[in-house]
Amino acid sequence: MKLHRFNPDGITAFANYRARLTLEPTLPPPTELLEDPALTEVVSDGVEIAPCSFANRLEAGKFLNDLIDAAGINLPERDRGLWAWLTLFFFDEVCPADGNGKRDPQDEARLLPLLDNHQRFYRHLLLGPFLVVRAHRDQPERALAFLKQVLWKPGDIVEQLASRKELVTNRAVAEAATRLYFDPKAGAFKRGHSSKIKGGPRRLAALLNQLDLTWYLYGMTADEVLDLLPKEFDRFRTAA
Description:
By secondary structure, the protein is mainly alpha-helical. It contains 13 helices and four strands. The strands form two sheets. The protein has a two-stranded antiparallel sheet. Strands 3-4 form a two-stranded antiparallel sheet. Strand 3 and strand 4 form a beta hairpin. Helix 8 packs parallel to helix 11. The longest helix is centred in the N-terminal third of the chain and has 15 residues. The mean pLDDT is about 95.
């Protein structure tokens, strides 16, 4: 299938499906919308897209960056029709059905890109990992704290830290968060990383917001950021 984007009517049709899904959780995705000439337009005649699965947000982010680069899209982060269309195309990845065929669309921002809301647009399940990978494309491993989650369940670290572009795109902050909460040897997140206990992501986000008022975080290294954190982070910092 050629890569498309929804026009305003297409976005509305998809939004209506998402709204109905909250009441009818077994309602199948309306894939017929994907090539409806009244609702879509072809983005690039030379770019084909096929269904695939993603093990995590990192794989999805890399795939989407390659796809959008191949299509030569300018300002893709402002293309709401593109992201809505991609969300429907990959609906089984971003909103999988459970054993009873039911789907949970959860928060609107996860499936419909809210591009004018600077605190919520990173919650979109495809645009979010695309932007994180793009910001750290030279070394995406530094941002594994935001990228190793399964696509449809980004978790507390993304929820707490990705709501501010100044934090999620900051190399030092991304690396510090990864060193705090992700164990590269085990290839998994550290125990307690998603909790609300002392030293958790919620506390880190609040503290970084405070530190950003008095420190130039963009000019710091990950080690310098970690050194600013109080003792409550020692349970995670010990192995950082």
